[in-house]
Amino acid sequence: MQLTSTTDYAIRIICYLAAQRQMISTSELSQELSVPSSYIPKIT
Prior knowledge:
mainly alpha, 3 helices, globular
């Protein structure tokens, strides 16, 4: 199955956030997951 990059980023972000027990900044999230920071506001 092929996913768009936005869908791939969204799935990775959701899984990562579900495992976190604390707040995380968008810049930290971008760096941890190697997701362009421009995608994060679209997804969250």
